[in-house]
Specification:
The complex is a heterodimer of chains A (339) and B (408).
Chain A lengths: L3 H12 L3 H14 L4 H14 L2 H14 L4 H13 L3 H14 L4 H13 L3 H14 L4 H11 L4 H14 L4 H11 L4 H14 L4 H31 L5 H22 L2 H5 L1 H10 L3 H22 L5 H28 L1
Helix pairs in contact in A: 1-2, 1-3, 2-3, 3-4, 3-5, 4-5, 5-6, 5-7, 6-7, 7-8, 7-9, 8-9, 9-10, 10-11, 11-12, 12-13, 13-14, 13-16, 13-17, 17-18
Chain B lengths: L2 H14 L4 H13 L3 H14 L4 H17 L18 H11 L9 H4 L6 E3 L11 H16 L1 H6 L8 E4 L6 H11 L3 E5 L1 H8 L3 H14 L3 E5 L2 H4 L9 H20 L3 E7 L17 E4 L5 H12 L9 H7 L5 H22 L7 H10 L5 H13 L7 H9 L4
Parallel strand pairs in B: 2-5, 2-6, 3-4, 4-5
Antiparallel strand pairs in B: 1-3
Classes of the chains: A mainly alpha (339), B alpha/beta (408).
Chain lengths: 339, 408
Amino acid sequence: MTTYGEQARVEHLLSIRRGTEAVAEATRLLARNPDDAEAVRLLALAHDVAGNRAEAVAWSRRAVAAAPDDHRAHVLLSRTLRGARAFQEAAEAAYEALRLAPGDASAASSYAVALSDAGHPREAEWAARRAVELSPTDPASHLNLGYVLHRVQPDAARRAYEECLRLDPANALAIQNLGALKSKSSPMEAIDKFAASLAVDPSHDIARENLSRTLNRRLWIILIITVFTVQGIGRTDTPEAGPAVAGALALGLAAAGWTWFRLPRTVRRAWLPLVLPNLAGKLRPFAVTGAGLAVSLGGCAWIELAPAGAAGPMVLVVAGVVVMAAGLVEMVFASRDHH
Amino acid sequence: MTSDDLIGSLEEAVAASPDDVALRAHLAELLLLAGRRSDVVPHAAHLLHLDPRSAAGRALMLQALDETESASTPPAPAMPSDQPGSGFDWRAAEDELGGLLPPMFAGSSPERSEVGAHDVESAGITLADVGGMEGVKKRLNAAFLAPMRNERLRTMYRKSLRGGLLLYGPPGCGKTYIARALAGELQARFMAVSLADILDMWVGNSERNVHELFETARANAPSVLFLDEVDAIGHKRSRMSSDVMRNTVNQLLLELDSVSDSNDGVFVLAATNHPWDVDAALRRPGRFDRTILVLPPDLEARATIWQMCLRDRPVSGIDVRRLAKLTDGFTGADIAHLCDSAAELALMDAVETGVPRMIGQADVEAALKEVRPSVGPWFETARNVAMFANEDGTYDDLLRYLRKHRRL
């Protein structure tokens, strides 16, 4: 048996997310108590927190083998298997945990999340609601309920996240998930949530990524709508075209300005670093396509103004179309890789 | 080899392996034979520190102290000056040593117990020994040293000495070294408490242990109490599941307040790589209300670090200035690692060719291709902090640095 002090040290390191140190401490603990199942479980947990996925799965399996009747070991195995994207096996492990401890909220929550990841939303919802019944004051139960309902019942998911935040106002995951829920219907609100999530937990990379993507999408939509409108109006041969183009540009600028001033101050202060790295990185296909579109539309506009037969505008249009096509091809491949 | 030569060699060996009992006992015996009894005292004390029941340690201490007293030799720093004249007061000695070692939790291993959580030592260095880092020194001077040294100006400007100083920055950038140098500047004793010590001491009677830590610092005043990785002990209580740790944070707050109130020569410094994880209560005025950002070393500091790292190695044709330029963004720990890697390359070459050779510039530059600065992940999080969690301007200096170095 491990002593309280030794265990507590590892647990403390885990609670403050010091994964590497927790692995070292748990390894020492296991070396001193080689037959102790709890030490094996703690080491598996430490590897999980440290982000060592393969080791986490391997040690979780050992923890289950060492204590097959301990539901916590099965919960942990389910969690590490989810990390390794073995969703079906994760669901099976969580089921075993729930079978061993039908009254345990963490087992029910784990089962719910595993089922959701494995593509069984209805069963997942049942398990998540069971977890909430078992532990109604635990923010994690509500967070997980929101997670399993996120795609299938957004309104119910929102209520679950809000309940989680009522119980734990500094829950960065719930704030970010609320933002993700709003990213399409209300991008500005989503940006607000992502920024708030990052303020609570700056190590939260997903929130930053989502913030960057939402901001990029918003800015590109404004840009493209403006370019299309200007182009559309510019093509008309009416004498009012000039003022109409100016009006469209003004509207585009106003939309951009409106967006700008509605952004949280923290985001306004750092919008460029949020936009640029992603345009060169994960959002590159999107950016290339958009840039190609803008260039080709610019070429079209030039054709209207240039003397008949001028080669320059045509070259610009063709170049824009080629760039756009390249962006679309990259987008298709990126999407295939993602799946 | 003369007796003095032998003693000199043994002293070096003991310095390299301070916990080697046999070696230390042998050295102490030789010192005894050479009549240098006062020099025996710290060795005997260390032997008793390692093993309070050590017969050899007791015998050596007894012999050394008998003579020390009769010869009126000044006592060694580790021992109290009011030792009884005849015989040895074991209870007092135990108390003395007991002050250096905290009560341990049940089941702790002997190896871990030997790590003195309350070891008090002299700093040994001053800020003059810290190469480069002029910005940090300037901030230290303004925030800490100048008000400390100029009582009249302090009174005139009504500058309070309340509160501690929090050093933060990426790992491996010399926060501990700077804290030690600061203790040297203040001519104060230095007590460093690391994460391992904290982990050892808080389980069980955690509040009492924290109190004893501060009591030891007060008893050794003037002293600098340095809490390394303070986020581990003073983590945000809202994120802690353990009541034990919450109580420890409460006790730490209490002790910090009492240090400020009594102002009895205990200067509390802390360091952390994750200031954003430190409980907000610890950052309030009167506690760790002054923060100093310790960044990867500048050119001057890197040159000094290179010189120090290469000092005891067989090197030839090394251009330290060039290496310092090439290692922009590397921490002191990274540079030490580079030195090791370069030495490894030369060693492997020597093994393959059978001819030992010096470590050259090419070795270091080859190692440089393999080693990347370790601060990348830290700056990823720091960037988020500077952008989204800096409403009150706490991290303005970090923001400026990130902008200047195009890390934003």
